[in-house]
Amino acid sequence: MTTHVRVDASTPGAHVLHFTHRYPHPRTAVWTALTTGEALSRWFPCAVEIDAREGGALTLTFPGEAPETAAITEFDPPSTLAFHWAGEDLRWTLEEDGDGCVLRLSNTVVDPEWTANTAAGWDVCLEGLSAALDGRPPPQGAGPNEALIAHYRNLLGTG
């Protein structure tokens, strides 16, 4: 998996993480993995239900926690999904690329101290998405480990 990540610290009060990843799968397959609860729950670190439409919402239920809601702010099949979750804005876009597609994710990170942790978390999620699309089991573990977080601190220059 080759993922390119960069951070934009020019937004006052927040960092914006930008991920770019090419998947050797059709855009429609990746779109389904982003926009159906059953598919999302295979690679996202919690159970997900989704009312897949602009104005709809994702309901995210982490083990042992109360459900959280993320309002869908943009929905343009099969290319754009955006939502507001826990004070942060996430925007996913898909572009066709030969026999595959390119996924771009931007994520505002309200607390700059958490930028490396957030990047490491998405690294694990994007690997899980790759596994789900390939028909492999998702990586084991509850989330990013300290070595991966340290890697992103170094890579992104966030401490």
Describe the structure in your own words:
This protein is an alpha+beta fold. It has one domain: Alpha-D-Glucose-1,6-Bisphosphate, Chain A, domain 4, CATH 3.30.530. Helix content is 30%, strand content 37%. Strands 1-2-8-7-6-5-4-3 form an 8-stranded antiparallel β-sheet. A hairpin with a 6-residue loop joins strand 3 and strand 4. The longest helix is centred in the last third of the chain and has 20 residues, at 115-134. The chain is globular and about 35 Å long. The protein starts with a strand and ends with a helix. The model has no long low-confidence stretch (mean pLDDT 91). Belongs to the AHA1 family. Pfam families: AHSA1. InterPro entries: ASHA1/2-like_C, START-like_dom_sf.
Per-chain topology:
Elements lengths: L2 E6 L6 E9 L3 H9 L1 H7 L3 E4 L6 E5 L6 E9 L3 E6 L2 E10 L2 E10 L5 H20 L11 H11 L3
Antiparallel strand pairs: 1-2, 2-8, 3-4, 4-5, 5-6, 6-7, 7-8
Organism: Nocardiopsis codii
InterPro entries: ASHA1/2-like_C, START-like_dom_sf
Family: Belongs to the AHA1 family.
